[in-house]
Amino acid sequence: MKNFISWDEYFMGIALLSGLRSKDPNTKVGACIVNNKNKIVGIGYNGFPVGCSDESLSWEREGEFLETKYPYVCHAELNAILNSNIRDLEGCRIYVGLFPCNECAKAIIQSGIREVIYLSDKYSNKDIFVASKRMFDMVGIKYKKLELDIDSITLDFSKMAKKQ
Q: In angstroms, rounded to a whole number, what is the distance separating the alpha carbons of residues 108 and 57?
């Protein structure tokens, strides 16, 4: 039995932990970009652009378009790309909880990321996700659903604090 997590588990864990920063009450998605040396070069989560008030804009999923979150939210993948600490993401891979939408797929392609690793593709039949796969296939970006050997990772802050 191993007493450590794999690289895939580690990076997906970072993506999921990052998603917990989102103030969206319904969908908390995080993303983690990694280079070919297994170094994290970008992290993001879904939220409003910097300076756009979380209290002034709506997190609603339904209603008049301008009264929902959709025209305002930056997805985790885009934020991870924009927040990356290197300019050239060529050859990197991105870990994300949900399969990317078509808008994020375009940003992933333009950034040079070459692989998408995701946990859920629950919206796979919606056109915006079909479009993502179509574009990824056209440009040769690999995508795969991550199959994990573990169900959970527990962070116990109190346990670590007691050791100090």
A: 26
pTM of structure: 0.92
Q: What is the DSSP letter of 13?
A: H
**Is-contact 40 46, C-beta < 8 A?**
no
Q: Are 19 and 45 in contact (CB under 8 A)?
A: yes
pLDDT digits (tens, 9 = 90+) for 66-76: 999 999 999 99
What span, in angstroms and rounded, lies between the C-alpha atoms of 11 and 17? 10
Q: Hey, what are 85's tokens?
A: 């600490």
Average pLDDT across the chain, whole number: 94
Q: Which positions ≥6 away from 118 have C-beta within 8 Å?
A: 95, 96, 97, 98, 99, 100, 143, 144, 145, 146
The residues annotated with a catalytic role in the active site are: 77
